[in-house]
Amino acid sequence: MQVNGDLNNIKAGTIAELEALYELEIPSGQIITREAAEKMLALTEALGREVAIYVNRKGNVQRVSVGDDATVELPDVKQRSNIRLSGIRCIHTHPSSDTRLSGPDISSLKSMRFDCMVAMGRKNGKIYASMGYLSGDTTEEGDYIVHGTKEIPLKELNAIDLVQLVVMINHQLGKKQLKNTDEQPEKAILAGVSFNNRPYGWTAEASLAELEGLAETAGAQVVAKIVQNKDKPDNAFFLGRGKVDEIAMLAQNTEADLLIIDDEISPSQQRNLELNTGLRVVDRTALILDIFAQRAQSAAGKLQVELAQLKYNLPRLGGQGLILSRLGGGIGTRGPGETKLEMDRRRIHSRIHELEEKIEKLKQQRQLHRKQRSHSKLASAALVGYTNAGKSTILNALSDAEVLAEDKLFATLDPTTRLVNLAENQQILLTDTVGFIQKLPHTLVSAFQATLEETTEADLLIHVVDASEPNYELQIKAVVNVLEEIGAKEKPAIFVFNKADRLVTDDGTRFDRLRMLNGREGVVISAKNPADLQQLKEKIAEFFKQGRVTMKLCIPYADGSMVTRLHDVGKVLSTNYNEKGTIVAVELNIGDTAPYMQYEIKE
C-alpha cells in the first residue's frame, strides 16, 4: 500500500498514518465519512500539504497521494470505460481552507472522468467542502462541462445521493456518444437468477428469453444475457457480488447503457447495483410499465399507466430531491434537500389520489356502458390470455374490428368491444382485453382494475393460448393466477389454442389437436384459417345455446304486461297478433321460463 506524491521530509510515523488511510471503509453510496475527513485534515494540518484519496464505488480506497495545492497533479487510475465515468471519486484537502476547486482539480476531473471531485477544508473548527462533477454534456469544441456545489458543510455533502448522480451522468454521457440518439437503441444486459424453488415454474433461461422479447419491445438492443444459480436472492444486490463485478466488466466490453433484472428488486438493491456497475438499472416491473406507457393510446389507458408508474416509483424517490436541490442551483432549487424530497412525495400522493378519483369515474362510466349493452339482451364474451397469444387477431377475424394486432408483446392495451355474428339470429358482444404475463406487476393489476372488469362481467371467457409456445402450460397458469386475483377464475371458459399453423412435426404432419387440449373444453385453430374460425364460432354458439330455449307464446291481451316483461328477461325474436292475443317468439334462459309455460303454443 504505497503512498504517492511528494513524500520529502515526512516522518515514518506520518507515512504510517497516510498508509492507514487505505484501511478506511466508506459506506457504498456515501461520498466520505466524518472519520475519514477528520484524519485527512489532521494530516494536512500537520504537513501543510494536500492529501488525496481515490475511492471506488464499493467504498474502498484505491490510492493515497500527497501534494500541494499549487502544483497538484493527481495520479492516473485505471478507467472502466472510454465513454462513461471512471468509477473513482477523488477527495482531497486544501491546506489554505479555501475549498474552491482549483484549475488542476477541474482539469483532472475532466481528463480522468472522476465520479466527482471533492475539496475539503476546516474553518472555525468545522469541516466544509466543495464538489464538482461532469454534467454529461460537452461544449461545441468537445470539452466536458463541469457543474458543482458552492461551499457546503460536510453533513450536507453526504446528503447528496452519489448513486443517482453517477447514473444520471453516465446515462447522459452514453446518449452523447451516439450521433442520433433518437434512432439508436439503448444497449441492455439482461440478468436473471435461477433459484432452487422458483415460484412461477419457469426456468431462468425461459424467463430470460421472454425478458429479451420485452426489452426489444421497449426499444432496447440486448447485448448480453447472464443467468446465475443461487439458493436465494442476495439481500444487497439480488445477484451475487461476483456476478455484479462480472457485469461491470461486461458493460465496458459491450458499451451497455442499461441492466435489466428479470424480477422485481427493492429500491436498495437497485441503488447498490447502479453504484457498483455504473449502469442504469431497471427491473422486470419497470420494463413492463415502460412498455405500457409506450402502448397506451386512450386517455383511460394513459391514466391507468401513470397511476401504476407513480405507485411503483414512490418508494424509489429517496435522494433524488437532494441531488436536484443541492446541485441544480438557481431560484426555485435552493433550500434543504429533504424538504424538496418531502414536497415531491406530497405531490405524488396528491397525483395518485387525483388519478384514483378519475379512474373511479372511468369505472362508473364503463358500468353505465355495460348496463346499456345489457338492455340489448346480447350475451357477452371476453378474450383473455397471455400477451401475444393472438387475441386481437381473433377479434379482427370474427368482427372486422381493425384492432392493432402485431407480433409483439402488449401490442394493444385498451379494451375493444365488437358485435359478432355467430349464426342465424345469434349475436354476441366480444371484448378484447389486455394481455397477461408471468410476474405481472400488482401495481398494474390494481391500476387496470376498471379495464379488467370487462373480464369479470362477461358471460364467457375465451382463453386464447399460443399453441406454438413450448411453455404454453406455464402461460395458462400465469393467466389463471391473474384471473384469480381479479375474481374471475370461476367464470365459464373455453380454450382456444391459436397459431395451429405453426404446429408441424418433423415428418410434416400436424400435432394431435385433441392431445393439446388435454381434456379442456375448446378448439385448436389458426386465426388465419376461415374454416378454423367457423369452428370457433360454432363452439361459442354451442356454449350460449346451452341453458337457453326458444318458446312460441300466445299471451292474451288482458295479460299485456307479460309481453313487456319478456323484453326485459329474454330476447324477443318476433311479434305477431291474432284474435286471441299477442304471438311472441322469444329466447329465454331455462330458469326464466316458468311464468310463461301457461302461454306456450304446442306445435
Overall morphology: elongated
Number of strands: 21
Oligomeric state of the chains present here: single chain
The amount of beta strand, in percent, is 15-25%
Query: Using only CA atoms, what is the Rg?
Result: 33 Å
- End-to-end Cα distance: 105 Å
Q: Give the structural class.
A: alpha/beta
| Contiguous uncertain segments of 5+ residues | 69-73, 319-339
Mean pLDDT: 81
Q: What is the helix fraction of residues, given as a range?
A: 25-40%
How many distinct helices? Answer: 19
Instruction: Summarize the main sheet.
Output: 8 strands, mixed
Any overview of this molecule?
By secondary structure, the protein is α/β, with parallel strands linked by helices. The chain is built from 19 helices and 21 strands. The chain has helices at residues 12-19, 34-47, 103-112, 154-157, 162-177, 204-218, 241-254, 267-277, 284-295, 299-313, 320-328, 337-374, 391-399, 442-447, 449-456, 472-485, 513-517, 530-545, 560-569, and strands at 3-5, 50-56, 61-67, 88-93, 117-123, 126-138, 144-148, 152-153, 187-194, 221-229, 258-261, 280-283, 379-385, 416-423, 426-432, 460-466, 493-498, 522-524, 548-556, 571-577, 581-589. The strands form four sheets. Strands 1, 2, 3, 4, 5, 6, 7 and 8 form an eight-stranded mixed β-sheet that branches. A six-stranded mixed β-sheet has the order 14-15-13-16-17-18, with helices on both faces. The protein has a four-stranded parallel β-sheet with strand order 10-9-11-12, sandwiched between helices. Residues 69-73 and 319-339 have low confidence and may be disordered.
